[in-house]
Write a structure and sequence with these properties.
GO molecular function, one term: ATP-dependent protein folding chaperone
Helix content: 40-55%
InterPro entries: ATPase_NBD, Heat_shock_70_CS, Hsp_70_fam
Pfam family, one: HSP70
Protein name: STCH
Keywords: ATP-binding, Nucleotide-binding
Number of helices: 12
Length: about 325
């Protein structure tokens, strides 16, 4: 769970426990049931709300845009998770309007991703599966689209599956090797953080090549020995085989609840950095017996789609068809 997930939500104690497991700060509820984060700055305790964090992020993006535009950005298009309810969407809009911005449109992230792939401009009815696998969550949406009209038919996902989980498997594997090689466990926080950073690099490199090397000095061990290890893509895939297979579960769920055959799906859209992992792409391809669309950088798909929508509204995009989302009461099915 992130600050974005908690925006505009009435939270319970179980949600706070998730926060406290993931982050090194306390989280409590205000009198209305909204989250607030406890941060200590210069020995003073500060309470930060999710919308405060949202304001900082939006202002940072506006500042970046203003540096590259000849006129100040005053109007915005914002994307939100498809599962956001009306209250969460309104909180998001209020966060932007509090900065003096006019919100022209709020669109769902799967819709934005589909727009990045140009699927809003197809005239005939198409069924699209959007697989969004990021650092910590997996979201799958089944949409239909025709002439720029989008309808969400089903949503499912796993809020505890993502790139960080894959990293943890590889980190544990390497910690075991260190223990056997040096006869002691690695417990120093700084050394473990160095290892985690190298694991992230290895994971990224293994999306493009078959082996990757780790090399780090273990400063907390006597003599500060050098730890070196080569990790193969096969090893990484074996360590995460059960987790990778879980990616298919919400895909099967959205098809089952809509009683749709996988052969009826026209397009599979990949979103999020973790969809770069070759094995995950292979699993999705083999399940549908069809290549997923990888023509857009998965990390950028949602941002590109939002930019296209903004360009169309502003009359700056060479297309007249923008996204129109039909209202739906579909709820996300959570899979663990």
């Amino acid at each position: 769970m992130t600050a974005n997930d908690s925006l505009g939500r009435f939270l319970q104690r179980k949600h706070l426990q998730l926060f406290e497991k993931l982050y090194p700060f306390q989280v409590s509820l205000d009198e209305e049931g909204n989250a607030r984060f406890h941060l200590r700055v210069n020995n003073s305790l500060m309470y930060i709300k999710p919308e405060n964090i949202g304001s900082i992020l939006i202002q940072t993006l506006v500042d970046a845009a203003n540096k590259n535009l000849s006129i100040p950005a005053k109007k915005v298009v914002i994307s939100v998770p498809a599962e956001f309810d009306d209250r969460q969407r309104n909180f998001t809009k209020k966060t932007a309007t509090s900065l003096g911005l006019e919100v022209m449109r709020v669109i769902n992230e799967p819709t934005a991703a589909a727009m990045a792939y140009g699927l809003h401009s197809v005239p005939s009815l198409r069924y699209i599966v959007v697989v969004d696998l990021g650092g910590g969550t997996l979201d799958v949406s089944l949409l239909n689209v025709q002439g720029g009209m989008f309808l969400t038919l089903a949503m499912a996902g796993n809020n505890h599956l993502g790139g960080q989980d894959f990293n943890q498997r590889l980190t544990k594997y390497l910690l075991d090797i260190i223990n056997k090689r040096f006869g002691r466990s690695l417990t120093n926080k700084e050394d473990k953080q160095t290892l985690r950073l190298q694991v992230e690099t290895v994971k990224l490199e293994l999306t493009r090549q078959y082996t990757s090397n780790i090399s780090m000095t273990i400063s907390s061990f006597e003599g500060a020995p050098l730890f070196q290890e080569t990790v193969s893509r096969t090893t990484f895939e074996d360590l995460n085989a059960d987790l990778f297979s879980k990616v298919l579960e919400p895909i099967k769920t959205v098809l089952n609840i809509t009683e749709m055959d996988k052969q009826e799906v026209h397009d599979i859209v990949l979103v999020g950095g973790s969809t770069r992992i070759p094995k995950i792409r292979e699993l999705i391809r083999d399940y549908f017996n069809k290549e997923p669309n990888t023509s857009v950088e998965p990390d950028l798909a949602v941002a590109i789609g939002v930019s296209i929508q903004a360009g169309i509204i502003g009359g700056m995009w060479p297309l007249t068809v923008s996204a129109v989302e039909r209202q739906t009461k579909v709820k996300k099915i959570h899979i663990s």
